Amino acid sequence: MQAHENLKTTLEYLPPAVRQSLQRLKPDGIEEIRLRCARPVAVCIAGRERFLTESGMLTDTPEQALHMRTEDIAQSFQAVCAYSLYSHERDIASGFVTIRGGCRVGICGTASNQPDMPMTLRHISGLNFRIAGEFIGCASQIFRQIGTEPVSILLAGTVGSGKTTMLRDLCRLLGNRSRTSLVDERGEIAAVHRGIPQHDVGLKTDVLDGYPRAVGILTALRVLTPEYIVCDELSTQEDVQAVLQAAGCGVQFAATCHAATPDDLYRRPVLRPLLDAGMFRFCVMLGHAGTVQTIRRLAVR
After folding, report:
1. Which residues 6+ apart lie within 8 Å of 257 measured at CB?
2. β-strands 120-130, 104-112: how paired?
3. What is the CA radius of gyration of the chain?
4. For residue 118, is pLDDT > 70?
5. What whole-number distance in Å separates Cα of residue 240 and Cα of residue 252?
6. Confidence class for position 5, pLDDT limits 50, 70, 90
7. At residue 294, does pLDDT exceed 50?
8. Is residue 171 within 8 Å of residue 254, measured between CB atoms?
9. Average pLDDT over residues 133-161
10. String of DSSP letters for 2-20
11. How many CA atoms lie within 13 A of 198 on its CB side?
12. Of 15, 61, 239, 283, whose CB neighbour count within 10 A is largest?
């Protein structure tokens, strides 16, 4: 499913006035749609955020733009949660919900923290629809450089660098060649809908959708005999221990992390044990919108 198809899907979750305006606009390259209570609707294209008018134009003048009411936000939020807030409690507590097509919807609101209870949000004040894109072939340069020998790869970059998009295509390439397990905790890599991945993640890829990352890695190791495990955003000690255990059994990894430079990797306490163990052979640094800045070998320190 390409980005323009994901935009069509996203329109179904938006308030009618916003949907109609965007249909008049007919833009290419929308990256984000932001709904903020009592403020103008914003659209982000090529990193620039502008306001959306009722007639389907983009403006820098907020007075000319569509404004969101509390009931508009509430209506859209209910649609995002498939009219079942209870079934999305965990996602809401994490601050986002992944909708059909793999697009992630960020949620702003008032946090409610109660002892011995998971955090919840009330008084939802804003929604940020991030349009997922599937760019077939974007990881071909990486795939060619690593060669045919099974090796682990770490994709690193800042917010908006296209880590997930690049990982998705790399998973497709690996999964067409090797037995691969995709641990898709947030549902935005394969975008599974009713058991069927909406994105191409490889013919030999098994998808563990919605599994907590560490649990999914160990589950794949025990029951799926993967040659590769693919996962997004290594960020906890549990993730690290699961990766080390699987690597000790000969499994290779393709994963992402947040870092602006290669040196930043070694400043991340969570990543340091993996790097010191020589877990990853290659580090791919990404620039804006999925551009490959460097592909470098990592040495054990």
Report:
1. 154, 155, 156, 233, 234, 235, 265, 268, 271
2. antiparallel
3. 20
4. no
5. 14
6. confident
7. yes
8. yes
9. 89
10. -HHHHHHHHHTTS-HHHHH
11. 23
12. 239
pTM: 0.76
Q: Which residue has the tokens 């067409």?
A: 176
How many Cβ atoms sit within 10 Å of the Cβ of residue 196? 9
Per the document, the length of the chain is 301
Q: Is 142 within 8 Å of 166 (Cβ atoms)?
A: yes
CA 271/CA 264 separation, integer angstroms: 10
* Residue with token string 């609707």: 41
Q: At what angle do helices 16-25 and 3-11 cross, to 10 degrees?
A: 150
d(CA 290, CA 165): 7
- Count of other CB atoms within 10 angstroms of residue 35: 25
Q: φ and ψ at 268, to 5 degrees?
A: -90, 110
Q: Would you give the end-to-end CA distance of the chain in angstroms?
A: 41
Tell me the per-residue pLDDT of 277-287, one tens digit each, with 9 for 90 and over: 999 999 999 98
Return the structure tokens found at 123: 């008084």
Residue 149, token pair as written in the block: 């020998």
